[in-house]
């Protein structure tokens, strides 16, 4: 009988922990909006997409072609973080 009460107590405590309490969160005026980013330069986006295509197609010079396109995209729009990220990933390979 002792095991029954211990199991009941543990399951009751577990259910209180699992529900996360009863504190409600308000999404009122204290919620922060994500900052609006400026639009990407279309030429930079074309070079970025060409770099992604080069990686996807593969081949003996895929990394070199992709690096060239990512660097071109960065030269046009230095705030294109995806180009920076992908350039770093290709350089690490």
List keywords for this structure.
single chain; 93 residues; mainly alpha
Question: In words, what does this structure look like?
Answer:
There is one protein chain. This protein has 93 residues and is mainly alpha-helical. It has a domain of 55 residues. It contains four helices and no strands. Helix 2 runs antiparallel to helix 3 and helix 3 runs antiparallel to helix 4. The protein is elongated and about 55 Å long.
Tell me the β content. Answer: under 5%
Q: Please outline the major beta sheet.
A: none
Tally of separate helices: 4
The unreliable regions are none
How would you classify the quaternary structure? Answer: single chain
Cα Rg? 26 Å
Which secondary structure elements does this structure contain, and how are they paired or packed?
Layout: H1 2-19, H2 42-57, H3 62-76, H4 81-92
Can I get a quick summary?
The protein is an all-alpha fold. The chain has four helices and no strands.
């Amino acid at each position: 009988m002792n095991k029954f009460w211990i199991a009941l107590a543990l399951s009751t405590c577990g259910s209180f922990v699992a529900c996360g309490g009863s504190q409600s969160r308000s999404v009122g005026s204290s919620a922060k909006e994500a900052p609006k980013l400026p639009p990407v330069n279309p030429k930079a986006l074309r070079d970025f997409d060409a770099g992604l295509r080069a990686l996807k197609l593969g081949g003996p010079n895929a990394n070199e072609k992709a690096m060239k396109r990512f660097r071109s995209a960065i030269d046009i729009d230095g705030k294109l973080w995806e180009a920076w990220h992908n350039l770093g990933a290709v350089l690490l390979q």
